[in-house]
Specification:
Structural class: alpha/beta
Number of helices: 5
CATH superfamily of the largest domain: Winged helix-like DNA-binding domain superfamily/Winged helix DNA-binding domain
Largest sheet: 4 strands, mixed
Number of strands: 6
CATH architecture of the largest domain: Orthogonal Bundle
Helix content: 25-40%
Order of helices and strands: EEEEHHEHHEH
CATH topology of the largest domain: Arc Repressor Mutant, subunit A
């Protein structure tokens, strides 16, 4: 007997103090957190016609993201599993991002060294740019080799705001 897996993807869009946010996932967990900033390379994001709107699903994530943008939360602690879809290399980079402490930053080369691939700095940057769950998987905490703000898929203005919310100067 085989068990049919529900491949339905669900979404909800809500407003925060910073921007609209869309959460997308399945019965497995959260796959995408999209920031509607109108900036950066991900502004072409759109809800797919076969996704089902469900405002009750991922309610713990929604509440904590709203609190984060209101400056009332800097760490996330919800029961919804994170299920970002990506290659093994991307997964290793995203896992390393989760080790960056709130209120601090690191460099792309630090992530490359952490995943034991010190020559893969550019590939690390590409994997970070494909992070489907920003903020929660904190790609905004990665800065250039000289400490300057560099690429963020939702725009540098948003990156600066996120770091400010976390007390990074």
């Amino acid at each position: 007997m085989t068990t049919k897996i529900n491949n339905t993807w669900y979404y909800q869009t809500f407003t925060t103090q910073a921007c609209d946010v869309t959460l997308v996932g399945s019965d497995e967990g959260l796959h995408i957190l999209h920031l509607e900033t109108g900036a950066g390379k991900k502004d072409g994001f759109q809800v797919e016609p076969n996704w089902v709107e469900d405002t009750a699903r991922f309610s713990d994530v929604r509440q904590q993201v709203i609190e984060y943008f209101a400056g009332k939360r800097v760490e996330f602690d919800f029961t919804t599993p994170l299920q970002p879809k990506g290659t093994d290399f991307q997964q290793s980079v995203w896992h390393a991002l989760n080790q960056i402490k709130t209120g601090s930053t690191c460099r792309y080369m630090d992530i490359a060294q952490q995943i034991n691939n010190p020559k893969a700095v550019r590939a690390v940057g590409a994997a970070i740019g494909r992070n489907p769950i920003p903020i929660i998987i904190p790609c905004h905490r990665v800065v250039g080799a000289d400490g300057s703000l560099t690429g963020f898929a939702h725009g540098l203005e948003m990156k600066r705001m996120l770091l400010d919310l976390e007390g990074v100067k």
